[in-house]
């Protein structure tokens, strides 16, 4: 037998199911040491697995809201492919927890399955069951305030505690959906803990097949509306927190509506993490199993496994018609449509084809239809509530910059808030509108490197970012061209230059950023250093250099004297230009612009931006970052020199010091800067210090939320629930 196994290559796994009368004794002695290949013995009823030394199989998550048909789907895949499946939840393994990967003790685990035929271990994709987070039946409100990242982590967790496993091996998702009415009723009918949730729950009613449908429906509705149960009390708190008053009034008397809310939220988040993790996905509806042949072909093809077995018989013998009245169904239709993301509604709307959606009432959630908590948060939470920012920030991010794509139609809204702040101080704006260039210019400047990586051609584009170690990074890129066979050149691109990007070999875009407020303060210091008092028409130049009042006035004039700051008809001749032999024909205003300003152009060019969120220890972190982001290990061989110190960084005029003092004070100037840089904070995750405390207060204030979340703009704002 061992000699036979040697004929297989090192990545082959054999699974054997011995006859029940056969006892397997593992050979011992020097002639039976570990062979080059690896093998697995499925020793009934115990499961023993030897993990491959070169384990290349990937995980295909089966993501399902509880009671969506998970067990049937797992059995279906096992039967048609004759391959084992896995689970995140070690307690579901009947005998011993055997991890799928030897180096990953956190999971997932092979699921014990007793079959009449031998099962193999998949070499391509392991279907792995996961329910992720935000799904428990009677949890308090806090369990449903989950960000996409928190939900993501729970998709790789064995239960509710512990450490999630590394998701680098997760490559695909089978997203399972079921008719929401069947899903909700089935979930409550068969949840083992429901009897403890309601004082009116009678488990025997559901267990007794002789009970009439009318009795079961009555017991279900009574249990849902038990005002004294934890299930009802916690459910109402969840709805009151997330739903606007108008929608809450519509659904408050619908039995167990909170479960429909959980259903929608769960699927919204699942679509969100699938996109975030860039996973290949397949949406599978539970009723698709009625077409056994097509579903068998689709699943086996998606998992890259051979379709070699007979699928189990499938009958949808449980439809829960009659649990809700027609009026209730219509109201649920209306609510689910409003709460769903575009992806979720596209998949679940088929189950409402026979209902009649209610007309949208005036002053409902129409402008931000899929943000269930926005209005409630605006109206009911106080500005000094310490938990308020944590609750509203995910909504703001998804409103302003979902998936690093700024909603450019919102910049006039942000500008109008800044303008109100300044006009309240008595300043008069010379123009009705600020230039869009303050937020989103029409061009992006790149330093392009084209070279080789492991004998194959590659390229990366460094997006130039003023006041983010731009000179140091460009110097390192020049060194790349000298040490590695390659070339470097500058390229100014607009949204019409997609053909240029398409002609590059494996293009990869990178940059480095920093905290947005410190970026503006540093930009101001550079502006003062280079421009001196050249802009004589502005009031700030008449004030003492390095004074706090000068910085405050500068910020005001920056917004209401835009023609001067954007002028291209100024020849600047001052101490800086003469000392450094520089020619400056316009103010160096771009040093003050937001770092997120280039993202719309990159999106139009089809470029994903990889960014390093900190300048700390840049000489070691940036080469490694580019190497990993662009899969170009060769670049690590070229060292990056320590960061040079700009003469302006020495703060010769005291401008930086004064600006920092004004920022530390809070107040009007700081509030304006927070508003101006909200796109930066919303678009860029992983900033080491997060959102500053003062900006948290600004962003969670009712006045800010009212403008950003409820103001109608010319273009509809698309927001996803998280």
Number of helices: 28
Q: Supply Rg.
A: 30 Å
Count the strands? 13
Assembly state (oligomeric): single chain
* Spatial ordering of strands, largest sheet: 5-4-6-3-7-8
Determine the fraction of residues in helical runs and give it as a percent range: 25-40%
Structural classification: alpha/beta
Low confidence ranges = 1-53, 205-210, 358-379, 712-722
Shape from CA axes? globular
Distance between the termini: 55 Å
Note the main sheet: 6 strands, mixed
Tell me what portion of residues adopts beta-strand conformation: 5-15%
What's the mean pLDDT score? 78
Task: Write up this protein.
The structure is a single chain. This protein is of the alpha/beta class and 722 residues long. The protein is 38% helix and 10% strand. The chain is built from 28 helices and 13 strands. The strands form 3 sheets. Strands 5-4-6-3-7-8 form a 6-stranded mixed beta sheet, sandwiched between helices. A 5-stranded mixed beta sheet has the order 11-9-10-12-13. It has a two-stranded parallel ribbon with strand order 1-2. A hairpin with a 2-residue loop joins strand 9 (444-453) and strand 10. The longest helix is centred in the middle third of the chain and has 20 residues, at 257-276. The relative contact order is 0.09. The model is unreliable at 1-53, 205-210, 358-379 and 712-722 (pLDDT under 50).
Write the layout of secondary structure elements.
Layout: H1 2-5, E1 15-16, E2 40-41, E3 58-64, H2 70-81, E4 86-87, E5 109-110, E6 125-130, H3 148-154, E7 170-177, H4 180-190, H5 203-207, H6 213-224, H7 230-242, H8 245-251, H9 257-276, E8 280-285, H10 292-303, H11 326-339, H12 342-348, H13 374-380, H14 388-400, H15 411-423, E9 444-453, E10 456-463, H16 470-483, E11 486-493, H17 498-502, E12 507-512, H18 516-531, H19 548-560, H20 562-565, H21 575-580, H22 599-605, E13 609-612, H23 618-629, H24 655-665, H25 667-676, H26 678-683, H27 693-699, H28 702-710
Parallel strand pairs: 1-2, 3-6, 3-7, 4-6, 7-8, 10-12, 12-13
Antiparallel strand pairs: 4-5, 9-10, 9-11
Helix pairs in contact: 3-9, 7-9, 13-28, 15-25, 18-24, 25-27
């Amino acid at each position: 037998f061992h000699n036979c196994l040697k004929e297989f290559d090192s990545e082959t796994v054999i699974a054997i199911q011995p006859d029940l009368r056969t006892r397997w004794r593992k050979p011992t002695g020097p002639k039976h040491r570990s062979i080059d290949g690896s093998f697995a013995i499925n020793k009934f009823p115990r499961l023993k697995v030897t993990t491959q030394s070169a384990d290349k199989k990937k995980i295909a998550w089966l993501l399902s809201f509880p009671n969506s048909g998970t067990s049937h789907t797992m059995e279906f895949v096992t039967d048609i492919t004759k391959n084992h499946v896995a689970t995140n939840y070690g307690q579901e393994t009947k005998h011993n927890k055997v991890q799928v990967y030897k180096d990953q003790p956190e999971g997932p685990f092979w699921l014990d399955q007793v079959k009449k035929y031998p099962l193999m271990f998949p070499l391509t994709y392991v279907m792995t069951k996961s329910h992720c987070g935000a799904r428990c039946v009677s949890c308090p409100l806090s369990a449903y305030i989950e960000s996409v990242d928190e939900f993501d982590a729970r998709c790789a967790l064995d239960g509710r505690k512990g450490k999630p496993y590394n998701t680098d091996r997760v490559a695909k998702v089978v997203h399972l959906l079921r008719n929401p009415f069947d899903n909700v009723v089935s979930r409550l009918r068969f949840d083992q803990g429901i009897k403890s949730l309601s004082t009116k729950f009678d488990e025997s009613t559901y267990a007794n097949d002789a009970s009439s449908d009318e009795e079961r429906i009555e017991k279900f509705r009574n249990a849902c509306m038990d005002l004294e149960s934890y299930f009802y009390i916690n459910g109402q708190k969840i709805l009151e927190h997330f739903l606007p008053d108008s929608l809450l009034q519509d659904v408050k008397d619908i039995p167990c509506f909170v479960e429909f809310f959980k259903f929608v939220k769960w699927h919204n988040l699942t679509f969100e993490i699938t996109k975030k993790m860039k996973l290949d996905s397949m949406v599978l509806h539970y009723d698709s199993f009625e077409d056994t042949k097509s579903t068998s072909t689709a699943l086996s093809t998606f998992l890259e496994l051979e379709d070699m077995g007979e699928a189990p018989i499938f009958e949808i013998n449980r439809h829960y018609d009659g649990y809700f009245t027609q009026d209730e169904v219509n109201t649920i239709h209306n609510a689910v449509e409003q709460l769903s993301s575009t992806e979720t509604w596209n998949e679940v709307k088929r189950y409402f084809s026979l209902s009649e959606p209610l007309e949208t009432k005036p002053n409902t959630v129409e402008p931000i239809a899929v943000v269930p908590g926005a209005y409630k948060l605006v109206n009911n939470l106080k500005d000094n509530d310490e938990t308020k920012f944590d609750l509203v920030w995910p909504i703001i991010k998804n409103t302003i910059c979902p998936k690093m794509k700024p909603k450019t139609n919102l910049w006039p809204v942000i500008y109008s808030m800044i303008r109100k702040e300044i006009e309240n101080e008595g300043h008069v704006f010379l123009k009705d509108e600020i230039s869009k260039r303050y937020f989103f210019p029409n061009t992006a400047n790149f330093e392009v490197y084209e070279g080789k990586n492991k004998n194959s051609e590659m390229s990366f584009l460094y997006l130039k970012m003023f006041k983010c170690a731009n000179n140091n990074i460009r110097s390192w890129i020049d060194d790349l061209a000298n040490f590695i066979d390659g070339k470097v050149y500058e390229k100014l691109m607009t949204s019409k230059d997609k053909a240029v990007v398409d002609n590059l070999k494996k293009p990869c875009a990178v940059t480095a950023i920093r905290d947005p407020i410190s970026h503006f303060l540093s930009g101001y210091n550079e502006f003062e250093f280079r421009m001196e008092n050249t802009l004589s028409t502005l009031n700030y130049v008449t004030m003492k250099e390095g004074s706090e009042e000068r910085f405050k006035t500068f910020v005001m004039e920056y917004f209401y004297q835009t023609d001067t700051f954007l002028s291209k008809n100024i020849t600047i001749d001052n101490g800086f230009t003469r000392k450094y032999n520089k020619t400056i024909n316009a103010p160096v205003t771009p040093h003050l612009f937001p770092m997120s300003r280039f993202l719309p152009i990159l999106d139009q060019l089809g470029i994903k931006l990889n960014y390093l969120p900190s300048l700390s220890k840049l000489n070691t972190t940036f080469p490694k970052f580019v190497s990993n982001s662009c899969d170009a290990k060769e670049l690590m061989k070229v060292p990056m020199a320590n960061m040079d110190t700009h003469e302006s960084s020495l703060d010769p005029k005291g401008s930086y010091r004064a600006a920092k003092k004004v920022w530390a004070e809070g107040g009007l100037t700081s509030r304006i800067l927070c508003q101006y840089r909200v796109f930066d904070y919303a678009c860029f995750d992983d900033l080491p210090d997060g959102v500053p405390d003062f900006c948290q207060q600004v962003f969670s204030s009712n006045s800010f939320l009212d403008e950003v979340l409820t103001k109608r703009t010319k273009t509809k704002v698309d927001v996803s629930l998280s």
